[in-house]
Specification:
Length: 206
């Protein structure tokens, strides 16, 4: 801050306004802590200065606004469970097919590993939900026809986006051939350091 004050005092008139403006900006930054991270929550600053224009003094006020940091919208346990039912409806809209869950049976969320199987004509997606020791979603099967029309990409992209509101941290899967690896890599999956050709993962953004 001292260095900027020096600039204000010793700069040519054309730069004084700039340095005063920047100085005011630094003085009025407001930070807030959220979930252990430092975010710029809201900044508003204004500086009044005079300059000559046509023989008159002009007074200006400039204000910048920064929106609040986006906070995570974690779902409640009940809402999170309901999301996996809602996905069947959303997949149906994407595919224009009637997607069912577990052949009409309810999802057993009380089990240590929860199986969810989505199925429609020429479409299957099987996932396993695990909370312990780490909240993980395992994609064990994905099949959609016809191919090369972007349907698989739309389904997986939507699925990953919806998971961002849940308590799950990673999506993992096994892939055994180059074509599959190219597909999953294009969606943001990375090979695991442990066994790159068997265990791929996606870090869910929150």
């Amino acid at each position: 801050m001292k260095a900027i004050e020096e600039k204000i005092n010793h700069s040519p008139s054309g730069l004084i306004i700039f340095y005063r403006f920047f100085y005011c900006f630094l003085k009025q930054l407001v930070y807030t802590r959220s979930t252990g991270r430092l975010h710029i929550h809201f900044v508003e600053f204004a500086y009044k200065f005079k300059y000559w224009k046509g023989g008159h003094h002009i007074l200006e006020r400039i204000t910048w606004h920064f929106p609040p940091a986006i906070s995570s919208r974690k779902l409640t346990r009940e809402s999170e469970q309901q999301l996996f039912y809602q996905l069947a409806i959303e997949f149906s809209d994407i595919l224009n097919r009637n997607v069912q869950i577990n052949n009409g049976l309810p999802i057993l969320f009380e089990d240590r590993v929860t199986l969810v199987h989505y199925q429609a004509k020429q479409f299957e997606l099987t996932i396993n939900l695990r909370k312990d020791p780490e909240p993980i979603v395992n994609i064990s099967q994905l099949s959609v026809q016809p191919q090369n029309q972007g349907l698989g990409t739309k389904i997986v992209t939507h699925f990953l986006r919806r998971l961002s509101d849940t308590s799950y941290e990673r999506v993992i899967l096994d892939t055994r051939n180059d074509e599959d690896r190219r597909f999953w890599r294009s969606l943001g999956f990375k090979p695991s350091d442990r066994d790159w050709h068997l265990d791929w993962f996606f870090k869910i953004p929150h």
